[in-house]
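C-alpha cells for Putative transcriptional regulator. Go.
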Amino acid sequence: MRTKTKINETPIDFPSDKELLSRLMIGIGEVSRISDVPIRQLRYWEAKGIITPVEPGATVRRYDFPTIKRILLIKELVDEGYLLDVAAIRVQKRIEAIDHAFQTLTKGAKKRKLLPNLNVA
C-alpha cells in the first residue's frame, strides 16, 4: 500500500514502511555491525541452517529484514545464557505464534470488512 501526499496539488507516491522493509537487503558486514554478531558467527549460524541469506550460494551474503530480526532475537537469548540451538527454536516458535496471531486477526478483520482485501495465507 502506498501513501499519496499532495504538494501543490501534485500527487507524490511514497512507499509504505512495510513495503520498504520488505525490500530491504543488507550485507553481512552491516548486519554484523547492527547486531553485534561477528561475521564468522553469522556464517556459522548459516551453516547450521539457523539463518538463510536472501540468495543462498551467492558470493555476497545479504539478509532481509525478517532475518535481521531473527538474528537480533537469537543474539538476545544467547546473551542471556541460552544455547544457540535452544535460542533458535524459541525464536522460531515466537515468530510462528506472532504470524498465527496476525493471520487470525487479519482474517477476522477482513470478515468484518475492517481491512481492505489482503492476501493472507
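Helices lie at 17-23, 28-35, 39-47, 65-79, 84-111.
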